[in-house]
Amino acid sequence: MTEVRSHISVSLDGYVAGPNQTPQDPLGERGERLHDWVIQTESWRREHGREGGASGADSDVVDAAQRNVGAQIMGRNMFGPPAGGAWDEDWKGWWGDEPPFRTPVYVLTHHPREPLEMDGGTTYHFVTDGIESALEQARAAAGERDVLIAGGASAINQYLAAGLLDELLLHIVPIVLGGGARLLEGVGDPKLEPVEVVAAPAVTHVRYRLG
Amino acid sequence: MTEVRSHISVSLDGYVAGPNQTPQDPLGERGERLHDWVIQTESWRREHGREGGASGADSDVVDAAQRNVGAQIMGRNMFGPPAGGAWDEDWKGWWGDEPPFRTPVYVLTHHPREPLEMDGGTTYHFVTDGIESALEQARAAAGERDVLIAGGASAINQYLAAGLLDELLLHIVPIVLGGGARLLEGVGDPKLEPVEVVAAPAVTHVRYRLG
What is the ipTM for the molecules in this complex? Predict the structure, then answer.
């Protein structure tokens, strides 16, 4: 059965991007440090078409999190506004001609646009009628597989607040960002149960089920 | 050798007390849920002069965290302003005639006051000349044992910001408080390394060393 899941790297003070984010610097100050651990893993590198990387606990966690994903949903800022700010039909997002998603991706936006088919199995669909509609479309595309809320903070927070998330896996990175994009903001009082903890050397992975 | 340590229960969104704290309600809205897990442990109950409680991972973590403590430091709000707001010499804090600390306790405050000797080994010392002075006095009292920064958020944040903490043990409670007393605020960019993770059923305990 389809699960609606999310997994994201979060600083110890609860941010998924650092302060002073801009279109040119979407991770904000020091925000790239949230992802130092993942770009060293074998599984992430394989997914992004790169060689090498480390096997082990971190890599296994990423592997499991990305497994059985049939469709993804992301916020507009994760798809990526162009540096100038305005979208046009030539802009294909941050992720290049062969994005690492390899599934249908539903982008939450206010700007209607035709679907954009990329190399490697990713097709971007631009959804202008809200998170429930995006989830409905993603579920239909995913079939028996899972729907991943890919990010960023705002998209995940909206699905959490609406009670639509089944599972949230946090990669707790031991850094303090002091500002930026706050996870778990405006989400009400969700019922969370930790069901799996993986203590990797640099990052603590905690998987929560939503009640 | 003396270590300067702290351990505290924190919500998944980084608060150690809920919103709308008042002198009558120092834990704020829903803040008492941060401590549900600990008051069920055998070790906490013993320390607070109560019987019963559960053994197991949570109890063992509390036991280890409270072991070898020779002196403690706390903020004024943890000692406890009286409900009316003003201190007088009759006010003996939140913690009753026999407080659970059983060591010298250095209270960070702007109000000078004579030391207050309580039953059971706790003596409150009121320190008006800053966190370094309090730590110096606590170190002297602790001898070879450790100094515990008992709380709350502000006291811990100040010691973190000053680079004076050796170890921070977080009891990560899977609740979202949405506001309140924020841990890790204004602490700069401390170097933290997770050195121990205990995955108890309801709470995830992560011990960090400060670099």
Answer: 0.94
